[in-house]
Amino acid sequence: MVGLCACLGCDRGNTVKVEKAPEKTRIDLLKDEVMAKHDSAMAKYGELYIERKRLSQQADSVPESNAALKEKYGESILALIKADDAMMQWMRSYQAPDSLSEDAALQYLQKEKQEIEVIQQQIKTSLAKAKALNLPKK
Q1: pTM: predicted TM-score of the whole model, two decimal places
Q2: Cα(71)–Cα(55) distance, integer angstroms
Q3: Tens-place pLDDT, residues 106-131
Q4: Four-point Cα dihedral 21, 25, 27, 29, nearest 10
Q5: pLDDT digits (tens, 9 = 90+) for 29-42
């Protein structure tokens, strides 16, 4: 029994402390959400380019006599361009709110979240419209 007590006593002060990673703040969580939405929108970027190129090529094949179809192609290409421009503008203007107060940072990130959600929808809508336009194969 004495040996057991002596053995247990020798571990005093030698315990290893494991520090937890600090919990994420509300700002960090909202920033992560904004960036996840950005990343999701960026994942569609290749499709924007492909559809724009495809529509441009197909639009060239539409006879001048079919003005209505040419106009649909033009509108769809323009929607893709606007979605691209909106994303580029958002990325140029976004700044991490590191120097702002907590309230100001949360407000800023909430506004950015709303903006990127609008852009996500713009990308989704323009891609759906583009994919719906397809010249029949001859």
Answers
A1: 0.78
A2: 12
A3: 999 999 999 999 999 999 999 999 99
A4: 70
A5: 999 999 999 999 99
Compute the chain's Rg from CA coordinates. Answer: 27
**Domain extents in the chain:** 23-132
The encoded tokens of residue 75 equal 């509108």
Residue 61: is its pLDDT beyond 70?
yes
H-state helical runs in the chain: 2-9, 26-42, 45-61, 67-93, 102-132
d(CA 75, CA 80): 9
**Type of residue at 69:** L
Burial 44-69 (b: 16+ CB within 10 A, else e): beeebeebbebbeebbeebeeeeeee
